[in-house]
Design a protein that fits this description.
Layout (H helix, E strand, L loop, with lengths): L15 H8 L6 E5 L4 H11 L4 E6 L14 E5 L4 H10 L3 E5 L2 E4 L2 H20 L2 E7 L7 H9 L9 E7 L14 E4 L12 E3 L4
Parallel strand pairs: 1-2, 1-3, 3-4, 6-7, 6-8, 8-9
Antiparallel strand pairs: 4-5
C-alpha cells in the first residue's frame, strides 16, 4: 500500500495594510521561514516586502538547518507554536519573530534560555544513564531503523559502555516509558518528541 501525504494549507485572507504595519516592527534585513501550511501566505508577504528587505524565503522542517545569508539581521517565522522558532534561535543566534496569521511576537531571551536549560538537563541524564533505549518509529518519513542498528552495533563517544535496547513502534507513547528500567532515550524519529520528555535526546545531539 502506498502512502500519500497531502499538506493542509492554511487559508488566510491577505491584507496589505496589516503587512505594511507589521513590516515597520521588523529589522531592515530579514530571512523568512515558513511551515508548509503557510507557504502561500509566506510568499505573498515576501513579495510585498520586496527583495530589499527579504534576503531569503525557505520552508522549515523539524530537523532542518537553514543556510542563511550573513546579511540577514533576523528571521521571520510564519507559522504557529514555538518548536521551529526555538530551533532556529539555537541554530542561527539571530532574533526570531513569529507571525501567526497577523499576530507578530518576538521570541524572548528567557524562552530561549529556558529551552537551553531543558536540553542540557536531558543531556546530563543521558550521560549518567547506564541503560539507554533507542526509539525507532515505523511511520514513513520518520523510520531510521538502519541508523539505530548502526548506533547500537558500533557505539561511539558517550554511548560506549552503556547497555542499549531498540524500541520500535508506529506510535511512540512516552507515558509507557516508566514501564522500562531505562535511564535515557535516544530519539531517531520526529525531533519534536524530545520536547515532550526530559529523558529524551535526539540522535543528532550525540
Amino acid at each position: 500500500m502506498q502512502t500519500l501525504f497531502i499538506p493542509a494549507k492554511r487559508k488566510i485572507p491577505f491584507d496589505k495594510g496589516k503587512i505594511k504595519e507589521i513590516a515597520k516592527k521588523l529589522p531592515n534585513k530579514i530571512a523568512i521561514a515558513y511551515s508548509i501550511q503557510y507557504k502561500d501566505f509566506a510568499k505573498q508577504i515576501a513579495k510585498q516586502l520586496g527583495k530589499g528587505k527579504v534576503t531569503q524565503i525557505t520552508q522549515v522542517l523539524g530537523c532542518s538547518k537553514l543556510k542563511l545569508p550573513k546579511k540577514a539581521n533576523a528571521i521571520l517565522l510564519i507559522g504557529s507554536g514555538e518548536f521551529h522558532a526555538l530551533n532556529l534561535a539555537l541554530q542561527t543566534k539571530l532574533p526570531i519573530y513569529i507571525l501567526d496569521c497577523y499576530n507578530l511576537r518576538k521570541l524572548s531571551e528567557s524562552q530561549i534560555n529556558a529551552y537551553k536549560i531543558r536540553l542540557k538537563a536531558s543531556y546530563i541524564k543521558f550521560l549518567n544513564a547506564d541503560k539507554i533505549g533507542i526509539l525507532v518509529s515505523l511511520k514513513p518519513g520518520q523510520q531510521n531503523l538502519n541508523r539505530a542498528l548502526r548506533l547500537r552495533k558500533h557505539p561511539k563517544g558517550n554511548i560506549r559502555r552503556k547497555k542499549s535496547y531498540i524500541f520500535l513502534g508506529d506510535n511512540i507513547n512516552i507515558s509507557e516509558f516508566e514501564n522500562f528500567s531505562i535511564g535515557s532515550w535516544i530519539n531517531t524519529a520526529c525531533p519534536r518528541l524530545r520536547d515532550d520528555n526530559t529523558n529524551i535526546v535526539n540522535i543528532k545531539s550525540e
